[in-house]
Every structure is written in structure tokens, then in C-alpha cells.
Amino acid sequence: MFQQEELYREQHALNQASLKFIRRPDISSELRLHIACTVLCFNDYGTVTKLAKKYKVSRTFIYLLQTQLLMSGWVVFGMLEQKAEQAEVDKKLEVVREILSLRLEGKCPILGISQLLKRKGMANTSIGYISELLTQTGDQLSPIITKEQGLTYGVVFASDEVFKGASPVLITVDPLSSAILRIELADNRKSESWEAHWQSLLDVGVVPLYLTSDEGSGMKAAREIKFSKLIHQTDTFHALALQLGKVLCILKQQTYATISNEYKQGRLLQRAKGQEVRAKRFGKYYEAKEKAADFICLYEDFCFWYEYAIEQFQIFDDQGQLFTPQQARENLELAIEEIEKLNWFFKTKNDKMAKKMTSIRNLLPKLFPFLAHAKKVVTALLEDSSCENETAAIQAFCAAYQSRKNKIKTKNTKSKKYFALKEQEELIVAEILLESTTINFEQLHQKVYKALDTIVQSSAMVETINSIVRSYFNCSKNQVNQAQLNLIKFYHNHRRYVQGKRKGSTPMELLTGEKQEKDWLDLMLEKTYKIAA
User: Fold this and answer.
1) pLDDT tens for residues 306-336?
2) Options 3.40.190.10, 2.40.10.10, 3.30.110.30, 3.30.420.10; which CATH number does 153-235+458-529 get?
3) pTM of model > 0.85
């Protein structure tokens, strides 16, 4: 080693070259690490001097190796610690995602979530931990729709309550987008509660175009105070279909019972042996037969006028012509009068039935505001038409839209197929009418249907949301707090529909018109855990 250095010096003297640094190939990387570790771990008095003499190096070189080892250690071990912390966060995040997904998408009870997490071998599977996590997450979410900067919403208010045990949960929904505007656990459903509920929506810029709800006393009183000048559409289902539908079910059961009794008396008559017994049983059979015939006639008449009454809530006739409020009301009054003329109505002297009919009569002026709004919508569409063919096509679209609504409402499979076929026929008519024009069929189709969707005639959508919320109550033994209602609201508003006319969209997309790029779970984690998932 020393000979090699002497050769370098001699060469330097001969060439008069400047040598500032000389690489020591005899000091390998392992030896450099040994020197650095020795001085770092056993840096007693004289250690650096001993190492410098032993390996024939300078003290500066040893201190340099020490510094390099320290810096490398900070980088290496700091990264390892950071990676360990990140792995721990990722592990906890995975559990959070599983819990939220099972609870909101799977509607699993907390005990079921715990069992499923244990089956997967995950940590933090206790019932207490899961319950606390759901509550903490829900507490960071708002029970009311958030106001985007500079954006106000003009929507229809569809309001109703669903009960958690004895406590009411007040809900207001936008029927067009199906978005939950506000959901809250209240002490009661009195006027003051509904006033505060609606005021909070006004405070964030959500403005009602008009309202639809049932005739609950608290809601009605609050509506008269808060929105006295707004158009109110009484829920047609609760006002008529539900009331008379219950009577129809009872009448159907009674009719089948009388028919069954007729068959029974007929069998007993056939088994009679003696003349006296035969005569006695014949009298009972004849009486049962007459009663069954009366009930069959009564049931058929009631069905006819019930269906006729329901038809008055159609928006368009078969030709796509709009019904007028006056026409619909007169026809409905006729149906009510004919129902009251039925013999069964007077013979039974049913006080409950009389009260139902009186209630329906009192609500008649409030049942048809939707037709007034429909007239404005259709008039605007027709005014935009550029030719007679487009006007005729719009009417065909209106008839098709009515068939589509009937298809959705009916539960009978044959009726669904019939209305689906009828809708297609009307759409074909519209397409033929537009062939001779430059108007795009699909664009006009979407335009008309979107405009007609703004005609809200019942609070059916809020009833649908109620059933969704109630399903969470059922798997929670009614032990639901405001935090969990916040979770339900956020999930519903940001989840993507997989079927139906809203397929592929989220309620918030339909409400705001802005595309939602991320999944509801990622959005929830960003909002509650500040994690860009």
C-alpha cells in the first residue's frame, strides 16, 4: 500500500501534476461501514485517533463516514417506520370500508358485521367498536343537503315521517332526483318541528317550487304558516286510493266468504236424507245463494267505480290530450256519488265508510293542482314546436309517457306487458311523424319526458324512501340515532342506481346536473377521515 503511494508521489514529482485526492482501493465498502459503525457506536476518547493510525486514513475521512452512516440510517429507518405507519393506516381503513359497505349496502346488523369480519380474519371486530365507528362517522356528516357555493336548488318538497319506535323521523325528498334533502330524528311531529325542518332547508338555499304531502295535522298546520302562498298537492294515494283500496279488500274478502258459504250450504243440501231436513237446508242454501249474488254484484260495481275514480288522476288520455282539473273533478264526484248509491253502503250503515267518503269530498279541491302544472308544461312544449308534425309527435310522446306511468304503477304482469306495448306503439307513431322533418327523434323524446317528469301528483317517492329507511330500522331493532340517519342520507344520495329509469345515475347527479366521478364510499372517507381514497 505504502509502495503504491510512493509511486504516485514519484510520478507527481516527475510530471509536476496536482494530486488532491487518492482513491484507496484497499479500503472496501465493508471496511468503510466497519469504521463508521465503530466510531458511531464506540466513540470513546482516542477511538478516532486509533482508527486513523490503524488504517492510515485521516480523521476527517472517519468523521465523513460517520456522517454518511447517520444520514443513511435516518433515510432507511425513517422510511421503514413511515411504511409501517402507512400499513397500519391502510389496515384500519380496510376495516372501515368493510364496516360501512356491509352496513349501508348490505343492510347488515352490527352483530352480523362482526361475524363477517371475524370470518375474514380482520382486526377490530367487536360490536362496541363497530357501533362507535358508525356513530363517529355519521356525526361528521350533515343531516341536510349541503349547499354548493353560489348554487341554489329549486325543487319540489315531498315530506313525510317514518317512525323509529315511538319517535318520528322527519324526511323531505325531491321526487324528481329522489335525493334526500333533510332527514332528522325529532321529538314529535307537531307544527313546530315541521316548521324548523323546512326552515333549515330554506337557510341553505333549497327553495320549494311547490309541496306534496299527506294531510297530517302537524304538517298541515306548519304548511299553512310557512308556505301559505305555495301550491300544495295533496297526496292522491293517501287521499283516495288508500282509503277506497282498503274498502275494496274488505269487500273482496266478504264476497269470497259468501261464495264459500254458498258452496258449503250446497254440499249440506246434497247430503240431506229426510224431507224435513232437506227443506230446512234448501232454505239456508237459497238464502246463502242470494247473499253471494248480492255481494258479487256489489263487488263488481264497486270495482268499476273505484277504477273509474283512479283513472281521473291520469294526466293524459289515449290520444295524448291533457285532462282538465274541472273535468277530472266532475268525473271523480260522479264516481263518489255512485259508490254512495250502492245498497251495501246504506244497509250496513257503516260509520267508518261514511267518514271516508266525507274526507274524500273535503279533499276534492286539493287533488288536482298537478293538472294545472301539467298544463303549463305541455303548453311550453307545444309553443316550442316548429311544425304540425312536431306538435303531433309531442302529443304521441305524451300518450306514451302516460302508458309508461301506468306500466310502473300496475303490479299485474299482463297489464305491465300491455302498457309497455302501448308505449312502444306511441313512440313508433312519433318517430314516423318526425321522419319528414329535421328534428332528432331521440332528443325530442328525452326533452318531452324530462319536462313531464316535473309533474308530481303524489308523495310516492318519499314513501319509497321511507321503506328504504325502515329497512335499516328493522335490522337495528329500532336503535337508530341521528348519526346513522346521516349515514343513510349520504349513502342514498351518492349511490349509483343499477336499475330503473335512473339507472347509472346518482340522486345528487340528477339534482345538481354535475357528474359524480367517485364512488360513494370514497367520497364518504374523504369527508369523514380526510383520506383521498
Assistant:
1) 999 988 888 988 888 888 888 888 999 899 8
2) 3.30.420.10
3) no
